[in-house]
Amino acid sequence: MAVIDATGRPPAAAAPAAPVRSRDPEAHPVPTGREEAWRFTPLRPLKPLIAGQEPDGKIDISVAAPEGVEVEFVDADDPRVGRVLTPVDRVAAFATVRAGGAVAVTVPGETELTEPIVAALRGEGGVCYSHLVVEVGPFARATVVLDHTGTAKYAGNVEVHVGHGASVTFVSLQDWDDDAVHAGAHAFSVGRDAKLRATHLTLGGHLVRINPTVDYRGPGGDAELAGLFFTDAGQHQEHRLLVTHLERNCRSRVTYKGALQGADAHSVWIGDVLIGADAVGTDTYEINRNLVLTDGARADSVPNLEILTGEVAGAGHASATGRFDDEVLFYLMARGIPAGEARRLVVRGFFGEVLDRIDVPALRDRVMAAVDAELSAVGA
Fold first, then answer.
1. Quick one: pLDDT band at residue 17, thresholds 50, 70, 90?
2. What is the mean pLDDT of residues 52-81?
C-alpha cells in the first residue's frame, strides 16, 4: 500500500546521493562496479589506481609553448590547483595526491596565440600520476593540445580555466600502446562570455576512461564538446561527461562519434547535462552516434538531461547505434570504388564532423591515418 504524507500526496522518490567531492582519497568509497558511475567499467585493470599504489613507473611530460606563455611546476597547495577540479572519485583524488604538484601553464590576459601549446605525455611503464593546470586569462585566445603516447597504468587530472571573454580550443589525444590503462578527470570552467571548444580523440589503450566536466563561471558562456573514438578488439573506451548549467544564458553542444570493430570491443558514452533552477535562457543539446563495423562489438550510450527551470532556450539529446550500411558500400562499389577504399570513405565521412573541428592539420592527419590503419588491419 502506498504511503502518503499530510498533504495527501505520495512522497517524492528519494534523489540519488550526490557524489562526494574531496581531494582526500579516503573520503571516496572503493568502487565495487555496482555504482552508477562504475557499472560499465572493468575494475580489474584499474586496481592499482583505485588503491592509490605508489608510483613505480615513469611518465615524461614536456610542454612546448609560444613566447609569452609561462610553464612551471607548482606545489599541490598552489591556489591554481583545485580551482576547477575537485575529485569525485578515488582515482582522481589519488592523482592529486600522488602527482605531488602540477604542471601549470598560464596564458596572460589579452594574449592571442598563433601557435598551439602542446603538452606531450609519454608513459614508459608502471603506475604513474600527473596533474596539469591551464589558466587562460581574460580576452585571450589559445589552442592547447594534450598528446598521450606510450604505456602506463596512468591517472591524470587536467583542469582548464577559461577567463572572462577568452576563447580556448582544447584537444586531448589518447594514442596509447595496446596495453595502457588511463583514467583521466578533465575539468573545464568557462567564464563570462567565454568560449570553449574541447575535443577528445581516443584511439589506443587497453582501458581508457575519460571524465570531462564543464561548469560556467558567469553568464553568456559557450562550450562545445566533441569526441572521436575507434574501439578495437579487446579495448574498453569510456567517456563520461557532465555539463552543469547554473548560470544564465549559457550554451552547450556535445557531439561524440565512435566506431567499433572486433571481438569484445566495448565503448561507453555517458552524457549528463544539469540545468539549475536559476539557469534561465540555457541552450543545450547533446548527441552520440556509434557505428558498429563487425560482430562482437558493443556500444553503450546513455544521454541524461535534468532540467530544474522551465525557462530554457532549448534542451535536447539524442543517441543512436547502428551497423555499417551495406547499401552505401554497394553503391560506392557499383561505381568502381574498391571495397576497402569504399569502407574507408564511409568511416571518414562519419567522423568528418568531428575531424573538421581540429584546427591543427598535423594532428588531424595523424588521427585519420590511425583510423585508416585500424580499418586496414581487418582487411577493410
1. low
2. 97
